[in-house]
Amino acid sequence: MKTIFVMVKCELGKAYQVADEAILNIDKVSEVYSISGQYDLLMKCYLSEEDDIGHFVTEKVQRLGGVKDTFTMITFKAFT
Length: 80
Fold this sequence. Notes:
- The protein is an alpha+beta fold.
- The protein has one domain: Alpha-Beta Plaits.
- Helix content is 25%, strand content 38%.
- The chain has a 4-stranded antiparallel beta sheet, with helices on one face.
- The chain is globular.
- The protein starts with a strand and ends in a 6-residue tail after the last strand.
C-alpha cells in the first residue's frame, strides 16, 4: 500500500464541490481537508503497489470539475 497526499488548488468557490466529488467518486481518496495557503484542499489517498501515481493523479484527481492545479507528495514511512 502506498500513501500519497495531493494538494489541490480549486477554482474560486469550488472547494466544497471538489471535496465532495472526490470523496464520493474516487474510492482511493481516504480523507479530504480544507487548508490555508497556496492550495485549498489536502487529499490523503491510499494506492495499491500496482497503481501508477501519475496516472491516478492526472486521470482521477485532476479531472474533477473545479480543479485548477495539484501538488503531489509521496510518502515513504509512517511513524506511529
